[in-house]
Fold these 2 entries.
Entry 1:
Amino acid sequence: MAATALPRPLAGVLAAVAVSLTGTRVSAIAVPWFVLVTTGSPVWTGVVAFAEMAPYVVVKLMAGPLLDRIGPRRVSLTGDVVSAGAAGAIALLHALSLLPLGVLAALVAVIGAARGPGDLAKSIMVPEAADLGRVPLERATGLMGVVERLAQLVGPIAGGAMVAALGAPAGLAVSAVCFALGSVVVAWALPHGMGRRAAAPSAPSAQEDGPDGYWRRFGQGWAFLRGQPLLLVLIGTVAVTNLLDAAFAQVLGPVWAEGSGNGPAIWGLSRGFMGLTAIGGGLVAAALAHRLRRRPVFFAAFLVAGPPQYLILAVDDVPVWAVLAVFGVGGFCGGFLNPILGAVTYERVPRGLLGRVGALQTSLAFSGIPVAGVLAGAAVAAAGLAPVLVACGVVYGLTTTLAGLHPAARDMDRLRGQGPRASDAVPEPAGGR
């Protein structure tokens, strides 16, 4: 009986990620389109995107010590409840004609602030859930990647269709339901002690509970990360590509959809088809990733998944089938990225530091996202859409190529199948007692 119950935590984490990310993907279509058609300005579209993503990055960055202290289950539950309330408020206020642009920006900022630690909390429960379910780590991260891609499939298609048929506020109402459902899944499926068990070995002592306890724990995360050159290279690579991808999703894609006459439905379909093929890539990665050399697979997949998307939209009067073909191939290759990233991270970071290091790692990787929409909107206004798309594609390709050639990237397979070293348990920050 106990054996049959073991997979439940992993299934619960994956289900919570699925529904909350679906809500995020729907709102990623609904909010930019709402601002674009309301104001007609790609700059304002980028500003509202900044209002959501700046709190997302900042709060996630600062939440790491809290996650390690009180446990990710509670943080995940709270984040989903707050996100549901803010998304529902946007839909309600619009229905009552009480949603000026400033109020919209404030509410999406609340969503971003809640989503940051909530998303991180779900991700750091994966290794413990894999242990409880007796699932190999690479397979668990592969399944996590499949779930993320499934959300990328369902969310944009549903969001694009709903925005086209009923308007953007209807999409935000669906987002609110998804966030609420995520909190229900976490409350029902995950044990109350989830995440605390892993953190126990490095829990702060009574001495650290003083005024400097939080900052000391924060510094331990920095001290560990500074000693991981491979993680630093991967963070830098993902930071640049995330900035470009965010500009693509928040501004460049919607501007292309409006200017080409294809509209939100085709844009959502393109993103959704990319998610469909990414599921296939993720399933292949879950089945075969432990047999493949990570470095060539990872960086080759990055090159195919990224630059071609930008370049195809820069072509005048490009047919929809060509866009779908490029997005489909890119999605399949992109399905290999997150499973490899997750496995490399979980192999190196001690469980008791996952909150602190994960907060720093993802916040740095997301650091360009808040300004991506603003920069993209200003660039399109100054130079036009096609030149900006080409420039983004070139920068994307150069970034991934140089990262793959970095000496630290050769270590991607060094700890395959191993846990973190005992000597990496809890490093002291510089100047620590």
Entry 2:
Amino acid sequence: MNKRKIINDPVYGFINIPSDLLYDLVEHPYFQRLRRIRQLGLAEYVYPGALHTRFHHALGAMHLMGLAMRSLQDKGHMIWEPECEAAQAAILLHDIGHGPFSHVLESTLLSGMAHEQVSLLLMHDLNRQLHGRLDLAIQMFEGTYPRPFFHQMISSQLDMDRMDYLNRDCFYTGVTEGAIGADRLIKMLDLSKDRLVVEEKGLLSIENFLNSRRLMYWQVYLHKTSLCAEAMLFQIIRRARELTEQGQDLFATPSLALFLKNKITFDDFVSQPEYMAAFTRLDDYDIWTSIKVWAQHDDLVLSSLSTMLLNRQLFKVQFLEHPSEEAIVAPLRDELLRKGVPEGLLSYFLVEGQTTNAAYVEEGEQIKIKLKKGNVVNITEASDLPTIKALSKIVRKYYVCWAKNVSLRP
């Protein structure tokens, strides 16, 4: 069977699946599930074209990893083909642990479990099914492989994951200001003592990359309308879980019902195989199917929120200078009470939150620049522009969103 496939990707053109292992991973049901999980959650409520999936993104990241491996090899670095394949396998599977709507429900369906933890568990399960063919990829993903640059290219502040999602999300949302030159960035990558660095002549490209990331966060990922839609979805699942815990026989697909009825911890996920099996069947369609039915439910909270989200009757939002500004929140609370929302249910229709954005985190895995003299420094030392230092500042915004057009009067 020919497993060397070519895929026509709208962002990069024709890309290859270069090995039998990578083909087997793409064909596996765990990976195919990513076709049914949107990359940007509910961003389509702002940008109607944002309909691409985690499946698209994972393939794109694999493609960029292949380009990066070849570029480093061309610069004389000894990278063996099994290492190239393992690096591409690791980046291909890096998001396999995402649940429905990507990040939106990450803390709701799985108690205290990040998608990276689930990805690693699923990679170990795949490795068992594939008789150890992912041993090297798992080491790279975990950061235990002796050559640290592989992990940096999978998960760092300048990894193939970020390069692809910035390019892809710009393409599908139409926010062209966030576009980056991934090809040039990859050509500028180099190694120093088996750690990832960027050639000095790539400094402006890195600054553009970080500035694009900052712009995309405020304009797409943390857009105020997206925040409202995500808050509504969170409250819908919260109410569905509360009703389920009260003993109501609430409609849900079998996989979703399991997660509504049980607060599943990491230990539960590891020790009870039925949870992992259910998770690998769970996707956006489980949530939407359930929400369509819940819109007709007798519970006014669940039905109101579900109907509003289905019909894009979204919460309103206002940004705050400080958390819990009573002068702003109190009138909103009074307005909802007048509309028949009982005080005990206000938290479903009046949500306070905060969001942060830092394009570059100096305390994290720093981006290193290899100067022409050969010495390696942090990018904040290499740049003579104030841009990088400004992008290193953490910007925190507080907000309140509320249901402006809701009435719970029978």
